[in-house]
Fold this sequence. Notes:
Elements: H1 4-17, H2 24-44, H3 53-58, H4 62-69, H5 71-77
Amino acid sequence: GSSLQSLAIAAAGIDAVRPLGPFGSFIGISVLFVFLILVLRPIFYGVNGGPSIISVVLSPFSGIVELLSQPYAFLLSNGINP
């Protein structure tokens, strides 16, 4: 079920766009959609060909991912013959 807090947030959003008339909800949802695109794009895809925020945060762990993806090659390159 929904909590009263989430219902209060939804009611506040509806009340905020009510003065815009019958198209208020459409305008509100459209503005929210554009805002989310502007905020989430740099996080997932990066901007102007740069790296995304997720790839920058996870870059210290890229060596671990590479190790786990090819453990046999890692062992052979370090002189261990399993």
